[in-house]
Amino acid sequence: MESNSTNSVPCVSFIGIVDFSQEARWLYMTESVSELLGYEPHELRGRPSLELVHPDEMSRVRKLHYDTIKQDKAACLVYLRMKHKDPYKGYILCGVSRTIVHNVTVGSVSFASTGSKALHNASTAQEITVISPNPEFQFRRWGDPSPMPPSYIPRSLRIALPDDRESSCTPEPEEESQFSYDPLPSQSFRTCLILDRFSMHNTIMYCSNDLLITANKVENRPFFDFVSKKDEDNVRSFIDVVKGWGVNERGQPSDGGFGFGGFPLLPEGRDYLHDQPTPSPPAAPVRQRYGSQSHSRAKSAKSHAHTVKNGLSHVSASSRAAKTTGESETFTVDAIFSAHSDGILVILRRAT
């Protein structure tokens, strides 16, 4: 049974990470998986992700998983069917994004709605594959192969040419060979960060490896700790744009395609919160020349500013512990940003 009702499925997405094994086992997923597919994260972690794929599409998806790894792909989108935990909901048509990040595949799974939202997501992807038979998701982009390749003509119906050359046509299709999966230990030099979408400071909730920054030193710190102060506004604009894209027709947080940018990364970080301007205290009334009231208010304002400053220092204590000696120790990274229901996915690599 396959579910086709858009009203019965929440328009949400979740971020997922799978390993390079033939079964593509789940390593991590955000909480929204329960809203989309009905499973709690602990029910899927460590299990093969391919067991959720529709049986008719299993072989193609397994080969796609391997090709994605072998060809070190990034920002790819595939439409396929995935099983909901509730058997009455059957299989849900999903849009799945994929990016290879060193030794894992990182991406998101979202309900595949049609219309302008789907066209936008497809327009930002570097590759689109439609596996599920659905005419509403037959996208074509500049540079894609023709959607109507020459048809195969049986040899018995071909017209013999005067010089005994066979007519120009598509070769006979070869029988599909048994797909063999050769293990691949690692690929690209990339790092994945998952940021808190609903935090002003975009707190880092997850870091996939230590290739660019040390994972156990960055989690639960503001993402902007690793962006220089002069680039902060620029990078924040990247995130604001993809967050704006990542809202569905109902106004709910969802997926929103890929945004591409670059910035200098501070691998050791800085004290971003400490660098924020201290709020100005409320303006005091006009001071009386010799009155003690003005002296009292000035003292109170000074105390208020000191309290605010101490408050910011307290909040950023963990950041300050890892503060670098300066912002000169940077290197430029290319970044892929994408927003999802409960997180922002950031894929980083050294700029070429």
From TrEMBL:
What Pfam families does the annotation carry? Answer: PAS_3
Q: Which residue numbers delimit the PAS domain?
A: 17-72
What InterPro entries does UniProt report for this protein, alphabetically? PAS, PAS-like_dom_sf, PAS_fold_3
Task: Please note every region of biased composition (Basic residues).
Answer: 296-307
Q: What is the protein name for this chain?
A: PAS domain-containing protein
Positions of the UniProt region annotated as Disordered? 269-321
